[in-house]
Amino acid sequence: MAQDFRLPDLGEGLPEAELVQWLVAVGDTVALNQTIAEVETAKAVVELPSPHAGTVTALHAAPGDVVAVGSVLISFDTGAATAPTPAPDATAESSAAEAAASDAPSAAAAPASEPNLVGYGAAPRSAARPQRRARVAGRVAAASDTAVLEAAPHDAIQFADVVERAVERPRSTPPVRKLAKQLGVDLALVEATGASGVITRADVEAYAERVGAVPAAPVAAESAEPVEAFELPRSEDASARTTRTPIRGVRRMTAEAMVRSAFTAPHVTTFLTVDVTATSELIASLRADRALHEHRIGIMAVAAKAVCLALARHPGLNSKWDEAAGEIVEHHYVNLGIAAATGRGLVVPNIRDAQELTLVELADAIRGLAETARSGRTAPADMMGGTFSITNVGVFGVDAGTPIINPGEAGILALGAVRRQPWEHRGEIALRDVMTLALSFDHRLVDGEQGSRFLVDVADILREPGRAMLLR
Description:
Elements: E1 2-6, E2 16-22, E3 29-30, E4 35-41, E5 44-49, E6 54-59, E7 66-68, E8 72-77, H1 90-109, H2 137-143, H3 146-150, H4 159-166, H5 174-183, H6 201-211, E9 235-236, E10 243-244, H7 249-262, E11 267-275, H8 277-288, H9 299-313, E12 319-322, E13 327-330, E14 336-338, E15 340-342, E16 345-347, E17 350-351, H10 359-374, E18 388-392, E19 411-415, E20 419-425, E21 428-442, H11 448-463
Parallel strand pairs: 14-18, 18-19
Antiparallel strand pairs: 1-8, 2-4, 2-7, 3-6, 4-5, 6-8, 9-10, 11-21, 12-13, 14-17, 15-16, 19-21, 20-21
Helix pairs in contact: 2-4, 5-6, 9-10, 9-11
Organism: Microbacterium psychrotolerans
Protein name: Dihydrolipoamide acetyltransferase component of pyruvate dehydrogenase complex
Family: Belongs to the 2-oxoacid dehydrogenase family.
């Protein structure tokens, strides 16, 4: 029975999404809820599960295509599908048919194996695992090269196991696949150490160190592998004087959001340079504490805590202009957006109810958001519902800037670089740690006095972290 799968609304109300990559091909047999593709929308890469079990009969889009919600994405034949086998003689065929008919009830009663996520490695071994076409025969031959096996004697990998694992792409993320390519590591030979079965950067690096893998040598253009899934395709003119990159995916989403914000909310930016030596000393003491060694508390975490405390005193900075309802919505919670620069563009996931978190918990949350964003796995829901944002331009060596407010929020704070420089301290000139804070706010919601008082409160906490003990 033929079935079409149309691109669903992924819960963001967006009319379209870009197809990043297919994880199946025409002729593949897929299981229910098996991941079949990755699409990018609202600055996030989302995995699409299969709504049907059957054989893929057609792919209606290519990687890089922008597909409208509701358009047919993939077609299936949901009838009983089996892997092709050599044609037997008439007698054998008849016997096989009778045997299949007699075994049908027991086969139907057998428990289904765990779905295999195509493109992310093999499912647990069983006789019922989905079969794939012979289109990977070349990869099997490469993986079964005796030289490869001899290069990894400590892995104790049997020849048959190598061939079986090479038939399907190992489970990993695009950044990990890129790292493996750079180190010259074949992911088919890497064993995942985590319970999820996904190969991590640590797995690849450990394997490369163990077998002495070296970075892959550059290859000729005509034999180069396809570009990484997150890289936008580019085209050059005949004279190679220009390069054209399609405006889509993260870049397009970011541009649309920033233009909408810049031309809707009247931006005002105020600056304040502050002595943060006491905060630097606090961070140094916390990092020296062996009990907190793994938490990596930094200036961003302290600033996040200061913002949460200051927002409680200045709720206008934690509000929203609802044009449709004709209302100003004041939030009694803080969903703190953390701007993260990634290879695909800027994303701003937020920490839910950040006002409830301790300094250590904020540090862990910021680190987790950054790692998820860099791997391209930030969920769309994590970038919605923010109430205030922070961006740290200081990590790039920048002293200050005029950040654009994230749509739907009232303000954003930019942290500049912390610099050791001469500064007046207790009536004398001394070397101090100094940084510049830049606050952009929506002048419809916040006037100059409110914005300035909020910025001073944040600066006072960074100047004297002990002041946080006086706030509630």
